[in-house]
Amino acid sequence: MSTEPAAQAVVAATAPTGPGGRAGDEGASIWRVAARRLRRNPGAILGAVIVLAFVLVALLAPVIAPYGPQELPGRAEIRPTFIPGPSPEHLLGLDRYGGDLFSKLVWGARASLVIGVLSTMLGLLGGALVGLLAGAFGGWVDTATMRLVDLMLSVPSLLLAVSIAAVIGQSPTAVVIAIGVVQVPIFARLLRGTMLAQRGQDYVLAARSLGLSRRTVTMSHVLPNSLGPVIVQATLMLATAVIEAAALSFLGLGGGSPTTAEWGRMLTAAQNELEVAPRLAMWPGALIAITALGFTLFGEALREALDPKTRKR
Amino acid sequence: MSPEVAATTTGSGGPDPRDGATPLLSIRDLEVTFTTQQGSATAVRGASFDVMPGETVAIVGESGSGKSTTAAAVIGLLAENGRVTGGRILFDGTDLTERGGAGIARMRGRDIGMVPQDPMSNLNPVMRVGAQIVEALEDNGVARGEEARRRTVELLEEAGLPDAQRRAAQYPHEFSGGMRQRALIAMGLSCRPRLLIADEPTSALDVTVQRTILDRLEALTAERGTAVLLITHDLGLAAERAHRIVVMYRGEVVETGPAAHLLRDPQHEYTKRLLAAAPSLASRRIEIAKHGGGARVAADDLLAVTADAPADATRAAADAVVEVEDVTKVFRIRGRGLLGRGTDFTAVDRVSFTIPRGTTTAVVGESGSGKSTVARMILALEEPTSGTIRFDGEPVGGKDRAAEVRFRRRVQPVFQDPYSSLDPLYTIYRTIEEPLRAHGYGSASRRRERVLELMDDVALSPSLLRRYPAELSGGQRQRVAIARALALDPELVVCDEAVSALDVIVQSQILHLLADLQHRKGLSYLFISHDLAVVRQIADRVCVMERGRIVEEGTVDDVFDHPQEAYTRALLDAIPGRSLDLGLRAG
Amino acid sequence: MVRLILQRLALLVPTLLGLSVLLFLWVRALPGGPATALLGERATPEAVERINSLYGFDKPLLEQYLTWIGQLLQGNFGTSTRTQVPVLEEFLDRFPATIELTLLALVFAVGIGIPLGYVAARHQGKALDHTTVVASLLGVTVPVFFLAFLLKFLFAVQLGWFPSAGRQSPSMVATHPTGFYVLDGLLTGEWDAAWDALLHLVLPAIALGSIPLAIIARITRASVIEVQSADYVRTARAKGLRPPRLRRRVVIRNAMLPVATTIGLQVGLLLSGAVLTETVFAFNGIGSFLAAAVFNLDYAVLQGFILFIAVVYALVNLAVDVSYGLIDPRMRVR
C-alpha cells in the first residue's frame, strides 16, 4: 500500500476543465500553474508585496526622499548626547551627522537594490558561464572546473567575500564584485547539476532521436527546463546579497564616509549611538531583515510552486 | 448488481470456505473521502464484500479504482486527509469504524497484518532486519528478548530466507528485492494475524521472483489458516491465487464472485473489458486456442500482423531492416575517492539479431538484462563498445551530420514513462510539430495539417493541442509520444517498455493502436519489454535476454511453445494464470 | 569505516593544496603586490623594493610558492603588520575563545533547533508550526550583527542582566592554564570566574547561534515531515508498533540523517558569524582579530586565518560524515 492515487486521480480528472474556470482549449503551462499557486500562497503574496514595495521605493527614491543622500539638513541641531527624534520636518528624526533618517533609509533602499541586483547578476552570469563551459566541454575541463568550484565552496561564503573585497579595496564596487564572485560557484554547480539531470530525461533522448543538434536540444529543451531552480536561487541570493553587503559594510569594506546612505553602513555607525538613539540602528536593521525576508519568502514559495513533486496537486 | 447477490451465486465445485461460517471481515457500504485543496473527493463509495476465515479474496482494479484505499481503511492507515465517511467495516463482529484510531491501532499486527507493495521503501533503512521483526513481536506482546530473536529467525526461515540467522543481523540495503519482500512477509505474519492484507505484494519484483514469493505466501497463509485480502491490478494473478474476486472500478465494487465463475461468466461490462485486456489472460487464451483445439484465437488477443503466416526464414534474413552483429557494451563505473579504481560492467555481451522488415521483434528480459541498452544503441543514443549495428545496410547514426539526420528521420523511439518523455514546457501541438519543423517539413499551415492528421492517427482529440503534458492522462501522453514518433513517417519504431507504465485497459488500447499503425503504415517495431504476456500478443519474433546475453531467439510461437532454455521456461511459468481453465474448451 | 576516514583525509590534501595556491596568488594579485600587503600603509617605493628582495618577491612565482609552503609547514604564517606578532601566536592565543563561543552557540542552536523543528513537524499546519516557520525565516534574514546589537542593547545596556563586552569582567582575577575561560574556572576551582566567563558568553552565543538555529529547526521540521509519510513508517504502524517506539526508533532515527549533515555545514556559518559577533561584543577571539585584520588590510593574518578556517571546516565535515556513518548503516559498507 504505497501511495493512494485515487484522490489524486479524481482531482486530476477535473483539472483539464480549465484552471480558474477559464474556458477554451488554452493549456496551463508550468509558469501559469506556478503563478496560480503563488497567488494562493499567503507567504508568496507577503513576499511579493515586500519585494515590490522595496523596488518601488528604490526606484522612486528622488521623489519620495525629502532630502538628498548626502544632505545634512539638521547639522546644527546635533549635540554629543542628544540627537533629535521624529518631528514634522524629519519624519524619523535625524542621525548623528544631522542627516534626515527617513531620506537616508529611502536612498539606502536604492543602494541595496543596486548592490543586490548587480552582484546577483554577476554571480548568475559568471555561474552560467562556468557551468555551461564545464557542461559543454565535459571531461577534463569539467573535472577541473568543478574542483575549483568545490574549492571556493570550501571556504565559508562571508570569508570568501571578505577576502575578495580586501583585494579589490574598500569601495561599493568591491562589495558588488565580492558578493557576486561568491555566488559564481553556487550558480555554476546548480546549473550544471540541473542540466545534467535534464540530460538523462526521456524527452531529451526523444529530442536527440529527432535529429536535433546538441545545441538545439540544449537551447530549446535542457536550458528552459533548468531555468526554474536558477530563478529560485537568484531570488534567494538577492536576500543573501542584501545581508552580506551589510556585513561587508560593517567590516569597513564598503568604502565611503560614515554619512553614506547605505543600510549596512548606517547600522554600523549607529552601534555607537545605541544609548543615545537606538532607532538609528533599529530602522536600517529592520529594513535589511524585512527586505531579505521578502525575497526569501517569495523565493521559497516559487520553489514550492515550481516543484514537480507538488505540482500535480 | 448488488454485491450480496453476486456473493451468493457461489459456483459449484471445490470446497468453499464460506460454508456455514460467519465472515471474518465484512465491509458494508464503505465510503472513503479525501479532502484536498480543491475540495473533497470520494475515493470509495458504497463498497461491500466479505472475507471468510481462511479465505483469500482479491480486489482487482486499475489505479484510482479505490482498491488500495479500501485496504487502507480496513487496517486504519488511510492517508492523513482520508476519512471513512460512511458504512461499516466489521472485523470478527466488531465495527472498526466505531473503534476509533487507537482501537484499530491495537489490532494492527496482532489481528490484521500487512505486506506492502514496494520492498525497497518499506523496511526501516537504519535498523537490522531481524530487529524490525523483534520489535513487532515485543510490541504485540507475542515474545520478548531472546525468545523473540529465536522466533524471528524461525519466521525468516519460514518465509524462505536462506541463512536466516546471519541475515537477521543484516541491514535492508544488504538484501535483494526478493529477500526484502520475504522479510516483509515474515513481518506481516509474525504475530499470527487472522487477516493479512497484501497490497500488490510482488508488482515491484522481477517476474521470476514474483512466482516463488506468491507461492510462499500462499503456503504460509494456508498453513496458518490466515485469511488474505489480496490487492492486485492483474486479473490473471487474482484468478490464480484467490478464492473469490472483487472487481472495483472508480471507487465502486462492480462485481463480486468466485474466481473461476467470474472468469467464465463475467456480468459487468467493466469486468468483461478487464478480462479482454489483461495480457496474462490473453496470453493464456492464445495458448488454450493453440493446444486445446476447438477454440479460435480471438483477433483481439493476437495483435502481431504476420504471426499467422510465418515469413520465409531466408527471405526475412535478406530483408532485415536492422542487423545487430556481435555487439558489446561495457560501462565504466567510476571508483570512489581519489584512488578508487573504476570497474567495468558489461551491460550487453556479444549480442546478434536481426529485425525483419514490417514485423515486430521483441527483446524480453528482467531488469538489468541489458535490453534497454540494446534499444539505445539501435537508436544511436549510445555507442557500442564493439560490434556493428546496421540500419538498412548502413551503420546506425550515419557517418556525417547529413547521414545522421536521414537516419533519425527513419528511426524513432517511444519511451516507457509517458510522464518524462514529453517536455513539460511544450504544448502538445509544439511537441508533435517539433520533428516537422526540425526537418523542414512544409509551411506552417502544412505542418498544422500534418499535426492534425497525426492526432487523428493516434485517436486524440484536436482540443488537446494547446494543452500541456501535465494536463493529460498517461494513455493520452503515450499517444502523443507515438504521434511525435510517427511525424516523419519512420520505418522503424523502437518501443522501450512503451506500455509498461499504463493501466491494463489503456495498455491494451495502446497495443491495439500500435498493431493498427503497423498494419496501415508497414512499420517495423523493436519492442522492448519485461512482460512476456504482452510480447506474446504483439510480437512476431522474440529474443530473450539474460544478464547481457541473448539466451534464446526465435518466432514467438517457437519460443513460447517449445522453450529450449531453463531461463525462458522460468519466465514463461512466471506469467500469472498459466494454470487457469478459462472455460474456453467448452465454447 | 577506517578506510572512509583515510579516503576523506586523502581528499583533503588536494583541496588544501588548491586553496593554498589560490591564497598565494591572492596576495600576489594585490595592487602593489605582496610588499604592499606586508607594509600596509607604510609602503614607500624604497620600502617595497627592500621587502621584495628581502622576502624574495622578485624570484619566479613557483619558487616563491614552494618557499611559502615550506614555511607554512614549519608553522611560519608570517607576521601581523598590525601587531608585529607572528600570526600563529596571535591565532593560538585567541582560538580557545572562539572555540568556546562557537561550541556554546552550536549547543544553543542544536539544543533548541532540533526539538523546535520536531514539535513543529508534529503539529504540521497548526499555529505553532506556522510560527516556527516564520520565525525560522526571520532568523535567517536578520543580520547577525544587528541581532548582536539588539541583544546587547536590551539585555546588557538596558536590563543589565549580562555583561556587554569582553570575555571576563575587568575586576575578575583568575588564572588561565588552558585559555578556555569557563573550563579554566572549573579546573582551578575558581567557580566565580567560570560563572563570570559563562555570563560573558551567553549573549554572543545566542546572536551567533541564531542563524544555525533557524536552519536546523527548518531542516529538522522538513525531515521529520518527510519521514513521517515514508512507506517504512506506515509499514511499522501496520505491524503494530506502539507510538513511543515508532517515534524513537523509526521516525527520529531516520529524520536525524539530514540534520547531522546540516549541523556540519553550520560550522562555516559559525566561523564567519564569529567575525561579526565577536566584534560587536568586543570578544577577543579570532573573529574580532580577523575583523580588525580586514579593517587594516593585514594580509598575512587574513591568509593564515582563512587557510586555518578552511582546515577546521573540512575536518568538522569529515567528523560529520563519520558520525553519519554511525547512524546510517548504508554508509558503512564499501
UniProtKB/TrEMBL annotation, chain A:
<protein>
    <submittedName>
        <fullName>ABC transporter permease</fullName>
    </submittedName>
</protein>
<keyword id="KW-0813">Transport</keyword>
<feature type="compositionally biased region" description="Low complexity">
    <location>
        <begin position="1"/>
        <end position="17"/>
    </location>
</feature>
<dbReference type="GO" id="GO:0055085">
    <property type="term" value="P:transmembrane transport"/>
</dbReference>
<keyword id="KW-1133">Transmembrane helix</keyword>
<comment type="similarity">
    <text>Belongs to the binding-protein-dependent transport system permease family.</text>
</comment>
<dbReference type="InterPro" id="IPR050366">
    <property type="entry name" value="BP-dependent_transpt_permease"/>
</dbReference>
<feature type="region of interest" description="Disordered">
    <location>
        <begin position="1"/>
        <end position="25"/>
    </location>
</feature>
<feature type="transmembrane region" description="Helical">
    <location>
        <begin position="111"/>
        <end position="136"/>
    </location>
</feature>
<dbReference type="InterPro" id="IPR000515">
    <property type="entry name" value="MetI-like"/>
</dbReference>
<keyword id="KW-1003">Cell membrane</keyword>
<keyword id="KW-0472">Membrane</keyword>
<feature type="domain" description="ABC transmembrane type-1">
    <location>
        <begin position="109"/>
        <end position="299"/>
    </location>
</feature>
<dbReference type="Pfam" id="PF12911">
    <property type="entry name" value="OppC_N"/>
</dbReference>
<feature type="transmembrane region" description="Helical">
    <location>
        <begin position="281"/>
        <end position="302"/>
    </location>
</feature>
UniProtKB/TrEMBL annotation, chain B:
<dbReference type="Pfam" id="PF00005">
    <property type="entry name" value="ABC_tran"/>
</dbReference>
<dbReference type="InterPro" id="IPR013563">
    <property type="entry name" value="Oligopep_ABC_C"/>
</dbReference>
<dbReference type="InterPro" id="IPR003593">
    <property type="entry name" value="AAA+_ATPase"/>
</dbReference>
<comment type="similarity">
    <text>Belongs to the ABC transporter superfamily.</text>
</comment>
<feature type="domain" description="ABC transporter">
    <location>
        <begin position="27"/>
        <end position="275"/>
    </location>
</feature>
<dbReference type="Pfam" id="PF08352">
    <property type="entry name" value="oligo_HPY"/>
</dbReference>
<protein>
    <submittedName>
        <fullName>ABC transporter ATP-binding protein</fullName>
    </submittedName>
</protein>
<keyword id="KW-0067">ATP-binding</keyword>
<dbReference type="InterPro" id="IPR050319">
    <property type="entry name" value="ABC_transp_ATP-bind"/>
</dbReference>
<keyword id="KW-0813">Transport</keyword>
<dbReference type="InterPro" id="IPR017871">
    <property type="entry name" value="ABC_transporter-like_CS"/>
</dbReference>
<dbReference type="GO" id="GO:0015833">
    <property type="term" value="P:peptide transport"/>
</dbReference>
<dbReference type="GO" id="GO:0016887">
    <property type="term" value="F:ATP hydrolysis activity"/>
</dbReference>
<feature type="domain" description="ABC transporter">
    <location>
        <begin position="322"/>
        <end position="572"/>
    </location>
</feature>
<dbReference type="InterPro" id="IPR027417">
    <property type="entry name" value="P-loop_NTPase"/>
</dbReference>
From TrEMBL, chain C:
<keyword id="KW-0813">Transport</keyword>
<dbReference type="InterPro" id="IPR045621">
    <property type="entry name" value="BPD_transp_1_N"/>
</dbReference>
<feature type="transmembrane region" description="Helical">
    <location>
        <begin position="101"/>
        <end position="121"/>
    </location>
</feature>
<dbReference type="Pfam" id="PF19300">
    <property type="entry name" value="BPD_transp_1_N"/>
</dbReference>
<keyword id="KW-0472">Membrane</keyword>
<keyword id="KW-1133">Transmembrane helix</keyword>
<dbReference type="GO" id="GO:0055085">
    <property type="term" value="P:transmembrane transport"/>
</dbReference>
<feature type="transmembrane region" description="Helical">
    <location>
        <begin position="197"/>
        <end position="217"/>
    </location>
</feature>
<feature type="transmembrane region" description="Helical">
    <location>
        <begin position="255"/>
        <end position="275"/>
    </location>
</feature>
<dbReference type="Pfam" id="PF00528">
    <property type="entry name" value="BPD_transp_1"/>
</dbReference>
<keyword id="KW-0812">Transmembrane</keyword>
<feature type="transmembrane region" description="Helical">
    <location>
        <begin position="306"/>
        <end position="327"/>
    </location>
</feature>
<feature type="transmembrane region" description="Helical">
    <location>
        <begin position="133"/>
        <end position="155"/>
    </location>
</feature>
<feature type="domain" description="ABC transmembrane type-1">
    <location>
        <begin position="95"/>
        <end position="324"/>
    </location>
</feature>
<comment type="similarity">
    <text>Belongs to the binding-protein-dependent transport system permease family.</text>
</comment>
